[in-house]
C-alpha cells in the first residue's frame, strides 16, 4: 500500500509540475518540462549542427523557391510566431524536411522528387511548421521525462521488494511497453495534428489544400515497405490520404477566399 501511495504521489507531482494547455485543434496537452527559451535554444543548436554536418545547397533558384513557400506559410501564423524563420536547403536525396523551435526550417533537395509543385511543397512545410506551433517538441520532452521518471521509480520499487534482477527486468519491459503503447501513439496523434494545422496554414496562404493528397500519393509511390501502423510514428498512408482529402474539401472556401484576397503564391 505504501509503495502504491508513493507511485501515486510522484505521478501527481509530475503532472502538477507541468502546464496544461490546448493545442491548435483543441487537444489537451501537458507541456512545460522546458521553457520556450530553452526550446528555442535547443532548436537553434540542432539547426546549427545540421548545417555543420550536412552539405547546404547553393542553388539560388531552389533556395528562393523554398524561402518563398516558407515566407508565405509563416505569414499566416499567429502573431507570436511571425518572426523571420531561418531556412536551409540540404543536398540530400532523402525526401524529408523538418522545422524546429526558434523558427528554423530544413528541407532536403530530395523533397522535390515527391513535392512536384509549390502547393505540394507547401503541404510539406506547413506540416513541419505545424509541429512547432502545436508545441509538439515541448509535449514530447515533457512526456518522455515523465515516463522515464516513473519507469525508474517502478523498477526501483520492484527491485527493493523482489531483488535487483526483477527490478531491472521490470524496467526493460516497462520501457518497451511505454515506447509501444504510450510514446508512439502520441507521435501518431501529433502527426495527424500537424496535418490538420499544416493544411489549414497552406489554404490560408493561398496554396491548394487538395495537393496534400497528391503529395502523399507521390510519397507512397516513392516509398518501400512499411512497419505495421501500430508500431509506426506516422499514420497509415492510405488513412492519411482519406483524411487529407476530406479536410481539403472543407478548406476549399478558405483557399478560395485567400485567393480572392490576393494571396496568390508565385513561388515556382
UniProtKB/TrEMBL annotation:
Belongs to the peptidase M48 family. Pfam families: Peptidase_M48. The keyword Zinc applies. The keyword Signal applies. The lineage of its organism: Bacteria, Pseudomonadati, Pseudomonadota, Gammaproteobacteria, Lysobacterales. It comes from the Bacteria. It comes from Lysobacter panacisoli. PANTHER family: M48 FAMILY METALLOPEPTIDASE, METALLOENDOPEPTIDASE OMA1. This is M48 family metallopeptidase. CDD domains: M48C_Oma1_like. Its cofactor is Zn(2+). Binds 1 zinc ion per subunit.
Amino acid at each position: 500500500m505504501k509503495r502504491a501511495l508513493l507511485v501515486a504521489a510522484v505521478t501527481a507531482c509530475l503532472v502538477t509540475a507541468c502546464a496544461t494547455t490546448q493545442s491548435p485543434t483543441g487537444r489537451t496537452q501537458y507541456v512545460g518540462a522546458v521553457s520556450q527559451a530553452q526550446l528555442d535554444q535547443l532548436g537553434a543548436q540542432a539547426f546549427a549542427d545540421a548545417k555543420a554536418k550536412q552539405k547546404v545547397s547553393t542553388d539560388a533558384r531552389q533556395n528562393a523557391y523554398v524561402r518563398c513557400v516558407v515566407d508565405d506559410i509563416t505569414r499566416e501564423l499567429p502573431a507570436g510566431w511571425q518572426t523571420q524563420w531561418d531556412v536551409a536547403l540540404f543536398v540530400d536525396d532523402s525526401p524529408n524536411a523538418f522545422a524546429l523551435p526558434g523558427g528554423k526550417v530544413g528541407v532536403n533537395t530530395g523533397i522535390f522528387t515527391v513535392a512536384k509543385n509549390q502547393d505540394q511543397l507547401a503541404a510539406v512545410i506547413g506540416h513541419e511548421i505545424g509541429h512547432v506551433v502545436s508545441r509538439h517538441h515541448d509535449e514530447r520532452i515533457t512526456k518522455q521525462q515523465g515516463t522515464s521518471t516513473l519507469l525508474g521509480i517502478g523498477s526501483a520499487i520492484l527491485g527493493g521488494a523482489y531483488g535487483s534482477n526483477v527490478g531491472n527486468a521490470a524496467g526493460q519491459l516497462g520501457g518497451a511497453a511505454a515506447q509501444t503503447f504510450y510514446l508512439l501513439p502520441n507521435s501518431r496523434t501529433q502527426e495527424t495534428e500537424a496535418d490538420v494545422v499544416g493544411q489549414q496554414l497552406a489554404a490560408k496562404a493561398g496554396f491548394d489544400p487538395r495537393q496534400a493528397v497528391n503529395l502523399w500519393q507521390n510519397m507512397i509511390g516513392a516509398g518501400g515497405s512499411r512497419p505495421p501502423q501500430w508500431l509506426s510514428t506516422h499514420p497509415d498512408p492510405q488513412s492519411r490520404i482519406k483524411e487529407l482529402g476530406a479536410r481539403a474539401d472543407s478548406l476549399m472556401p478558405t483557399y478560395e477566399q485567400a485567393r480572392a484576397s490576393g494571396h496568390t503564391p508565385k513561388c515556382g
